[in-house]
Records
---
Amino acid sequence: MEETGADPRRWRLLGLLAIAQFMLILDVTVVAIALPHIGIDLGLDRSTLTWVVSAYTLMFGGLMLLGGRASDLFGSRVVVLTGLLVFTAASLTSGLANSAELLIGGRIAQGVGAALLSPSALSVVTKTFDGEERNKALGIWSAIGGGGAAIGVLIGGLLTAGPGWQWVFYVNVPVGLVVFAILLRMLPADRPAERQGGLDLPGAILVTAGTGTAIYALIKAGDRGWLSAATLLTLAGAVVLYAAFAWLQRVVWSPLMDLRILTRRPVAAGSFLILVATALMISIFFLGSFYLQHYKGYGALRTGLSFLPIAVATTIGAHLSGQLVGKVGARPVAMVGLAVAAIAIVVPAVWDGALMVVIGTTIGGAGIGAAFVAASTTTFSQIDYREAGVASGILSTFHEFGGSLGVAVVSSLAAASLAGTVTTGFTHGFTFAAVVAAVAAVLALAVVPAARPTTGAEAHAAH
């Protein structure tokens, strides 16, 4: 039944915005499959290849809260269209890249476009729908995350094995232009919020620079040594930048985020879980892609097909946990999910072979999917609806930062295997991931509240 006064085009609008969001999510896992081919064609070393992933997720996460604030100040329509145009142009640049500098520059610009587009598109969705329709629309929106990761591995394999790795970027161009042209006519004009305060650009720069400095230290640690003076000093620099960000958020008129929300146990616990879960997920995709293609000699398409069970298992794990979390609470779901991931990831760490990698990471993916659900339900368990936007932005930021940090660490640990023909590096990378999952499972017992989530949080998890 049509609601009185509802925009009759609202579901088509949701479909177009969902396609745009799908491209942003896709652009992490689709590139993971293409990395070995990109490295060979452009002659990139391990650290540079790591930045091909991290540059995108770093900018996406670091500027996302700024993108949401820009949407409030200037109107969602303007920011959606700007973000989509920047992302599309940056995709073309990345595909045309014939050097490391141009490729990473394109990936940085893609991250900027994604940070503008994602929160502003979600704002349009929340403004367009009301009541039960809004819950349904947000459910569709949330499902895009798992779907994008699952389909990304297959699309990455198809495109890399077919027309070439450049097409993992080129594919965004026609889709982006068509969606832009339709949204230009369909997106409703919206009135910006009252201009109280402004954009906290210094805050966004500081938090992004802090995370970028930490990533740089972790990537270089594989060559310099984990306890070398250079590594420790660079990490200290990241701490200084984070401290400056925290100070700025307390004194600036319009802060990027109210850091006091992170002092709440559910939000802090949820942020921790999403950081770990995303780091684990991107790490096993990164290690698995290089193991199968670089060491085992698999083609890109065969690798993409081998990864499909992991993506499907992650989705199934998330769905089952979404039903279970309302009965037993987020704490046991997080503990069991991370424990399953730890035990499963031990398999490729101990036993060699493509089958062991696929089996271990597939079962591990189911556990990671459960951790994702526990992260969202924990975060939103005691959040007022007026703070849901801020909490969602924080969760999304830690999600992207988790991917950046995870791939930075495992690329250093697996340096010997990524640059040579031995398996010791892969063993170190998978072992570290298993240890992180095990430690996180134990910590979940201490940090995740025991209370069952509220009805709203359960609905968020189910989606």
---
Amino acid sequence: MRKLCLILSFLFAFGAMSCRAQVSADAALATEIQAQLDDINLAAQLNFPASVARFYREGKFAGTWVTDNYGQNAKWQALLLIDCVLQYGLSPADYHPKEILYNRLYDIEKTDKLNVAQKARFDIMMTDAMVTLLNYLHYGKLNPNYGQLAIDKGLGLPFNAERSLALILKQPDFKTGMLDVQPRSKAYADLQYKMRQLKGQYDGDCYTVPEQTIRKIAINMERLRWAEINDAEAYVHVNIPSFDLTYHLPDTNRMFKVIVGSPEHPTPVLQSNIEYFTTAPEWKIPASIFNKELLPKAIKNPAYLTENNLTIYDGVGQVENIDAALLNTIAKNSKNYYAKQAAGCDNALGLLVFRFKNIYSVYLHDTPDKMLFKREKRDLSHGCIRVENAALLAELLLKNDAQGGKVAQLKRNLTKEKQQNFVLTQPVPVKLTYLTCLVKDGEIVNYKDIYTLDKSLEMAMYGVSDPVNLR
């Protein structure tokens, strides 16, 4: 009995000493991590230094990847994800490939080759790689709405990578948690599945995948990350290069042909919400059209204004007794004048306009020139989007806004050319995208790069001056 007590006492003392040693090692690691994060030279090597610092500060600077605080599963799955970033349209160069190595983690796990400073640096680099992966999977690398500096500051944004990483580390399946931050749209999922086939399943299997195809898919996955499309909600999606509009509901899609801006007057990429639409709208002529088109035509043809139901206004009101001499005077100081086109079937907006806030002053609208929808290539407008069968879109918006009872009034207004605003109780997200390839029925469908934007995005994403898409 006495011998047993001695053995137990020894084991307890040994365990206590081991525990104290581990606590001491963890404290030394935390101190080193904090010190390295204060080093501006190291911060300059990180993609998201502020986010990484917040992550460690929240966890009292404890090690994440070089300890067993989160078990073995997360750290090795993290390395596997970095190995597979090409399958998500991302570049391995963004994830510290010279620092994050399998053999380095093995040495940390199985040997004493690395000192505390090396362990701390590896831990920090791995955290930055995971924060980067989360941000790039969610926002994209070059999101025009959320710049990388703004994302790193983390102020008031819809997604926070370091907080998400802290939660994912506590989940049983680290990889699934990381990938779950990607866009929730079928268009994105289809492109990502195709990329996984090309860079995972087929790559190296006697199946040559053109680099041009890989990069085309990657830049369009990037664009879909910017769009923040969620198939669980209703939305209106205009894809500029394919000249179509999709009114998406969780259980169905309705397709409409559209006319978009010409290369000289491109339709912008944006996100907003359709708040209301107007029947028989007046059209206030944009200043650029007023100066470059309306005035020259009116000067050349005195009847042009009357024939097109156009009225010119100044700061006081309607300008009367317009002749060629007055028009020439107006042209010399046009900033003090503007024009409106009266409502009617010949109005350039047609009988309907759908309004949503944006800095570009663009909108969706009907058009009197229906024949243009028969063209295959429809980049013809000054930037706004003309919608075929706009009345049906208005009707569907009312019905899905629990305002089906107003459809009859809508139809009467269109018949009688009566102006009225129909306000949606629940504004509908509208997404204007520029996607030059999508996956349809399992196959890649390419659309013409009408604004030649693929080149600049590919150069920015891949850091090249010779894009393969233009070779």
